[in-house]
Structure formats: C-alpha cells, structure tokens
Amino acid sequence: LVSGFYKLLAVAMLLCSKLDYFKTAEGDLNDSSMEGIESGDIADRKACFVLVHKFVTEVLVRLRQYKDDLLASCLQLVLSLPTQLVAMDVEALVPSLQSA
Fold it and tell me: What is the reported pTM?
C-alpha cells in the first residue's frame, strides 16, 4: 500500500522532469524561458519544489530502514527525481544510495 504511493510519486517526478516543471523554481524571474508563465504559477511551482525537496530529504533518511518492495519503490522515486532536486541533495543522495 505505501510502496504504491512511492511508485505514484516516481511517475509524477518523471512527468515533472519531462515538462521541466521545476525549471522555473531555480531560474531567475526575469529569465526568457519563463515567458507565458504567470507569476502565481511560478510561486506555486516554487512552493511545490520546496515541499518535494523536504519530502525527498525525509525519504533519504528513512531509506536505510526500508526493505523489499518498499525499498525498491523508494529507490525508484529517488532515481526518477528531476535534476533540479538531485543537484540540491547530491551529498545526501550518494550515501543513501550506497547503503541501499
């Protein structure tokens, strides 16, 4: 049941990567790549980025405790993260993945 939640999040993260959803979360507000995106939408994307970042940080801490299907689905989530999230947590990702 819980592993299904992580699998669903992994699919959502793959979609975020393909859509470059979090690209605006780190970009400059005056960047030309954000033309056509409303300022409210940018704020929502940044809030979502922060929320997902906090959740992934918690998952990385708990990853060492998980086994079997739950561990596999958490690893799938971590491996499907957009590059913007991975870049922020490289130092936390490597030890967690090595121990798994």
Answer: 0.78
